[in-house]
Amino acid sequence: MIVVLDFGSQYSQLIARKIRQLNVYTEIVPFNTPMKELAAMAPEGIVLSGGPANIYAPGAPQLDKAVLEMGVPVLGICYGMQAISVALGGKVNHSDKREYGHAIVEFKTKDALWHGLDKKQKVWMSHQDRVTKLPRGFQVLGETESCPAAIYHPKRSIYGVQFHPEVHHTQHGDHILNNFAIRICGCKSDWLMKNFIDRTIEDLRESVGERRVICGVSGGVDSTVLASLLHRAIGDRLQCVFVDNGVLRQDEAAEVVDRFKSIGIQIKLVRAGSRFLNLLKGVSDPEKKRKIIGKSFIDVFFKYLKNDDLLAQGTLYPDVIESVSTKGPSATIKTHHNRVQEVLNLIKQGRVVEPLKELFKDEVREVGKELGLSKETLWRHPFHGPGLAVRILGALTPKRLSLLRQADTIYIEEMHKAGVYYDVWQGFAVLLPVKAVGVMGDERTYEHVIALRAVESVDGMTADWSRLPYDMLARASNRIINEIKGINRVVYDISSKPPSTIEWE
């Protein structure tokens, strides 16, 4: 096992995911985990994450020096490198020259961390502080023009890198992490998704016991994999419930019911659209929409959730990290619908089952593949709980909902026709809160505007806009404008995450 100590970085789970891809089991714990607990985990190596703080600022997270005395290899990344330096008597100061983006590191010394790599490497930096005094016994392993980019203690297997090997933009970041986990820590590449499935099924059987589990399903890959995993673990004690909340895509409810029947899992369809739409009437704020939908979803569930039942959710790590800091002092980006107060209360009672909450989307798909789910299920574009409600910017009305639903259907149809649907991580339409002037049939129009969004991603934490074929976009635009009365303009979103998010709200 490799343990990642989280100092609040948005990329802590990305570090873990990259190491897991080496088939090495990895867990994340808070930076201030008591030494007794950390030692009990018996890690073969420890990685210190980055973080948003300045190490010298009052109240900034500090590294317990005892971590460095455990006798296992340690790799500090960005803030983690600075934390090592300060803990062992070095110094970190604000730099006159900040580094954001690509940089070139030149390595001064050969070492196992750099085994198999050229002397100069392109890496990704994101820092404004630098190590100005090395701790005793440390040497510079590599540097840029402005700072030590890699340091190490040759006798203690303690390393620090100022750049981020976990991000895609570091040219050979995977190779560096492989060198640390396999070559330096001595880990074996023997943790596979089959191991995760076996361990999770065993854990579910133990934690659930003889109780019943109510599983809210949407038909997406997350909830389908969750339901399949639960069904394999507890069989008929699983009750799947699909709630039609009124903000679904075209024919969504019928398709989901058919899909679950095809894999041998019975599903209860609850039609509650009017309830949700009445509560959402006149609400424009996206946070309020999410909370209303999340709370209403739980309220509907209470009808099926008995006192001893458990609630299962297909929560993934990106959902958790964007909602609330669960492992370290990270910043909240948005409230996730799986983290409304009612769910938090159930979590405190030990009545929520979330076996996927430490996984990224690509890992969930690997689990689904091991479980034998179809390509159509595994590569269906993500569709979150708030649905079309947060793809209608501004107040939700029946007319605006109908416009968006039709536009979204046409857009997805054209992706399939062009053979690009499975090349896209997520594609959808958004109804903007503005109108635009147009000319249709020699008459002036003043109608709604639809934005089309498509992104490419691996894990949902970062994403780039998809370069869809112009002809396909043209066909989608023409159909939306010609077939849907009330829309006279279509635009295409070419924003990446970050700085944007995938969803507009």
Jot down its keywords.
about 500 residues; alpha/beta; five-stranded parallel beta sheet; 18 strands
Present the secondary structure layout.
Elements (H helix, E strand, L loop, with lengths): L1 E5 L5 H9 L5 E5 L4 H6 L4 E4 L25 E4 L1 H9 L3 E17 L12 E14 L5 E5 L4 E6 L4 E4 L11 H12 L8 H16 L4 E4 L4 H14 L3 E7 L7 H11 L4 E5 L1 H8 L5 H17 L7 E3 L4 H5 L19 H8 L3 E2 L7 H10 L4 H4 L19 H21 L7 E15 L2 E14 L7 E2 L4 H14 L3 E6 L13
Parallel strand pairs: 1-2, 1-3, 3-4, 4-9, 10-11, 10-13, 11-12, 13-14, 16-18
Antiparallel strand pairs: 5-6, 5-7, 7-8, 8-9, 15-16, 16-17
Helix pairs in contact: 5-6, 5-12, 6-12, 8-9, 14-15
Give a written overview of the molecule:
The protein has 505 residues and is of the alpha/beta class. It is 32% helix and 24% strand. It has 15 helices and 18 strands. It has a nine-stranded mixed β-sheet with strand order 2-1-3-4-9-8-7-5-6, sandwiched between helices. A five-stranded parallel β-sheet has the order 12-11-10-13-14, sandwiched between helices. Strand 8 (148-153) and strand 9 form a beta hairpin. Helix 5 crosses helix 6, helix 6 crosses helix 12 (361-370) and helix 8 (273-280) packs antiparallel against helix 9 (286-302). The model is unreliable at 323-327 (pLDDT under 50).
